[in-house]
Every structure is written in structure tokens, then in C-alpha cells.
Amino acid sequence: MTDKNTQEKNPKDKQGQRQQRKPWQKNKQHRYEPKKKDPEEIPILKYGPNNNFSKFREAMAKTALRDYGHLGTLIRTGQYYKPTEPDINDYDLDFDPHGINKASYLEDMKEYRKELLKMHENRPKLFALIQQYLSEESLDEIKRSDKYEDIEEKTDPLELWLLVEETHKVNSISKVEVVTKMAARSTYQTMRQGPFESIITYKERFTVAQKAPRLLRCLKT
Questions:
Q1: Going by C-beta distance under 8 Å and a sequence separation of 6 or more, which residues neighbour residue 6?
Q2: Segments of the chain with pLDDT less than 50
Q3: Are 78 and 162 contacting, i.e. CB atoms less than 8 angstroms apart?
Q4: Do 205 and 193 touch, CB atoms closer than 8 A?
């Protein structure tokens, strides 16, 4: 009898043990795992004296270069990349009895034109990428420019980027001269390294702010 009762109780005991483990298992299943932030994620560009233009520019430059190659270099250089056109004089066609040099020249010209076409076709895509990460305030400020309608019509990424730089490197919040000077001086005086900011990032942010034309003019007056 005892053995039989023991055998009958054993399944219940095992079930009780399983039930006791359920809360622990449930907590494990619902344990919050913080999502790791992508270091190359492009932040939304903010407008104002304490904007994030430096971080925005760095992230945009990396993404543009990765996705659009030579075209993407305009974020750092401020100009369109110009591939070197093959020079026919470098192929010595006068001493080319088998036409090998001529064939090389034609192939290089083909690759040259192919690269130009690819960069031209990708211009609207890069334009859309830049515009995608502008905040409403930033876009509103950019649209104030007389050049914006023409830039948007042509979907010209270089002109759009130069306009973004022009309106955000200034670090101003007003077109009124007095307010602009106060904002510029305040930005310069409070330019400190953040608690989680590397010295390289801080230096770049400081240099960008220091080179802003309106900021320099305000500090001299």
C-alpha cells in the first residue's frame, strides 16, 4: 500500500515542482533586453543654437558614402566628385598595331561614362535621404531660402546639403541681429564636453561651431 501511494503521489509532486518553477520561467521570458543603439544611425537634425549638426553630419557622411559611393563624398567635401576622364594621349594609339591600347581606351571611357551616369541617377536618392532626417523646424528654416524651390525641383543633393550647412552651422535661432548675437555668444560660452562624449566628437563639434561665419562675426563685434 505504501509503495502504491508513493507512486501515486510522485506525479503530483513532480507537477508541483513544475508549478513552482513557472514564476521563474515567466520572469525569464519577459525579461527586458534593452535594444542596442546603432552607432551609425542618423539622428533627426534639430534646429537652434544647441543643435546636433555635428553628429548629424558625421552619421550622414558615413551612410551616404556607404550607399552612394563617390556621390556621397559631397557631405564632407561640399562638392560633387569628378572622376578622371581617360586621356587618349596616354594610350599611345600611334604604336598600337593590334588595337590593344585602343580597346583599353574604349573600355576605360565606358567605365567613366558609366560612373557619371550612376552618380547622376543616384542624386534624387541622396536628396531624399538628407531630407528624410530633417526635423520640421529644420525643414521650415531651409524652406525660407529663395533657393529652396529650385533645389527641390532639381532634387539636387549638393545644393540641399549646402543649404543645410548654411542654416545649421550658424547656430542661431533668430534672424534678428541682437538675438542672433546673444545666441551665438551663449553657444560659444557654454560649449563644454558632454559626460558621455569622446574628446574627438567634442573637438569636431567645437570646431564646427567655431567656424560658423555668423558666430565668428558675432564674437568680433
A1: none
A2: 171-176, 179, 213-216, 218-219
A3: yes
A4: no
Nearest to 171 by CA among 141, 195, 146: 141
User: Which cell numbers in the block locate residue 11?
Assistant: 506525479
Alpha-carbon distance of 112 to 126, in angstroms, equals 21
Please compute Rg for the chain using Cα positions. Answer: 30
In whole angstroms, what is the distance from residue 106 CA to residue 99 CA? 11
**Closest to 103 measured CA to CA, from 116, 86, 119, 118:** 86
CB 127 within 8 A of CB 155: yes
Residue 45's CB is within 10 A of a number of other CB atoms, namely 24
Please tell me the distance from the alpha carbon of residue 166 to that of residue 64, in angstroms, as a whole number. Answer: 19
Q: What are phi and psi for residue 134, nearest 5 degrees?
A: -95, 135
Spatial distance between the Cα atoms of 84 and 89, rounded to a whole number of angstroms: 14
Q: Are 52 and 205 in contact (CB under 8 A)?
A: no
Dihedral over Cα of 44, 50, 65, 127: its sign: positive
Is this prediction's pTM over 0.85? no
Instruction: State residue 50's pLDDT score.
Output: 82
217 touches 171 (CB < 8 A): no
Per-residue pLDDT reduced to its tens digit, 125-134: 999 999 999 9
The string of DSSP letters for 138-154 reads HHHHHHTSTTHHHHHHH
